[in-house]
Amino acid sequence: MVRVRHQDDGLIFTVENDGAPLTDEEIAQLILRINRPEPSKDGRHLGLWNVNQRLINFYGRDAGLRFDASDLGGLAVTFRLPMKGGHTVESIARG
């Protein structure tokens, strides 16, 4: 399931699945892995690391990926994109 909602001066995106749930420890490890300055040498979670770095580099620290247990039973991944004057930063940059 994908949800988008407007909150304050940004858009909140949440992607959830109903897969196998992760423990709090597994979620904590995932958060540590994607917030390292360099990707893990074993290549695990490289895609999530890449997306997280791009969000942070383009939109700032508050835009990074957040992980929680999903109400559907699996994992919920959330990120925030800031808006200025009703437009995302990217739409302003593109004109």
Structural overview:
This protein has 95 residues and is an alpha+beta fold. It has 3 helices and 5 strands. It is flat. The model has no long low-confidence stretch (mean pLDDT 86).
Compact summary:
This protein is α+β, with helices and mostly antiparallel strands. The chain has helices spanning 24-34, 46-59, 89-94; strands at 2-7, 10-16, 66-69, 75-84, 87-88.
Describe the protein's topology:
Blueprint: E1 2-7, E2 10-16, H1 24-34, H2 46-59, E3 66-69, E4 75-84, E5 87-88, H3 89-94
Antiparallel strand pairs: 1-2, 2-4, 3-4, 4-5
Helix content: 25-40%
Q: What's the end-to-end separation, in Å?
A: 30 Å
User: SSE string, helix = H, strand = E?
Assistant: EEHHEEEH
Radius of gyration, whole Å = 14 Å
Shape: flat
How many alpha or pi helices?
A: 3
Average predicted confidence as pLDDT: 86
Would you count the extended β strands for me?
A: 5
The largest pleated sheet is described as: 5 strands, antiparallel
Contiguous uncertain segments of 5+ residues: none
Characteristic key phrases:
5 strands, 95 residues, five-stranded antiparallel beta sheet, 31% strand, alpha+beta, flat
